[in-house]
Amino acid sequence: MDKQEFIESGMLESHLMGLTNEEEQAQVAAMMRMDEELSGYVGELEEDIKRYFAEGSVPPPEAVREIILLRSIREKKAARATIPAKRQIPANISI
User: Fold this and answer.
1) What is the DSSP letter of 88?
2) Less CB within 10 Å around the terminal CB: N or C of the chain?
């Protein structure tokens, strides 16, 4: 597949959005290593995709943000609670 076919295939966009499998990821990485111009194109494409999604994003309502924050705090506390405490080594055991 030549560079133009590769660009037109949509694989680069899929790669940037995390939708490619390992083989396709390796193919994109190899093509980018071999072609500096393609690598630059992918960088520009990534910026375009980020800009597109940023422009179309809508901030969540305050209530939803609060719920997410509270759940995050609760999950962090639960994770800390499940970490076992350090055990003391009895004095009669040497390491």
Assistant:
1) P
2) C
